[in-house]
Amino acid sequence: MKMKIRIGFADDHPLVREGLRQLIADTGDMQVAFEAAHGQEMVEKIKKIDIDVAILDISMPGRCGIDVLKEIKLIKPGLPVLVLSMHPKEVYAMRVLKSGGAGYITKDHSTELLVDAIRTVYRGKIFVSSKLEDMLADEITGAMDKLPHENLTDREFHIMMGIAMGFPIRKIASELVLNARTVSTYRCKIMDKMGMKNNADLVQYAREHSLLKTYSM
Predict the structure, then answer these.
(1) Domain check: are 11 and 99 in the same one?
(2) Going edge to edge, which strands form the sheet with 81-85?
(3) Above 60 in pLDDT, residue 1?
(4) pLDDT digits (tens, 9 = 90+) for 172-197
(5) CA–CA separation, 11 vs 38, rounded Å?
(6) Residue 157 is part of which domain span?
């Protein structure tokens, strides 16, 4: 009897988890090994339960999804992690792949494409859409000049976006599980890296590059 692909997934929305559970149950070569409601639960279950593919929602309460992805790769380097997100590829896809993700797919894609993505990463390949392939090609050839925010670390990017969205330092610190002084230090580094003088410059930059429309903390 052919072994099924054992899948563990994490999403903080019960309806999304129900949909994933049903999709996997209806797909003959797959089965659900576990599900989780947040990133830390995902990490703990991965330590205890063997799976073939992990599906991770990048935007859940608590820890940054990219940080969860990095921890999963430290625990099980060979485990393919497919990131499922509501955010357009331009915002997160490259960060996901650079952090060890095996693929990135947005929630507005068809279930058929999601199944194809799962099978692709299970076979040890990277799943990318045609648009993302173009982005990767541009980066490899150097044809695309990086925008200032693309040179930020993942942590710096999240703090920059928190500032651009008008959140106070304490709010950003709470969301990212940091102390306020650390966030203030990051803020100074971000300003220096991006050549900006104040928060208003960051807000204007985020608006000009349509980052506010595609991000949620």
Answers:
(1) yes
(2) 30-36, 5-10, 53-57, 81-85, 103-106
(3) no
(4) 999 888 899 899 989 988 988 888 88
(5) 6
(6) 148-214
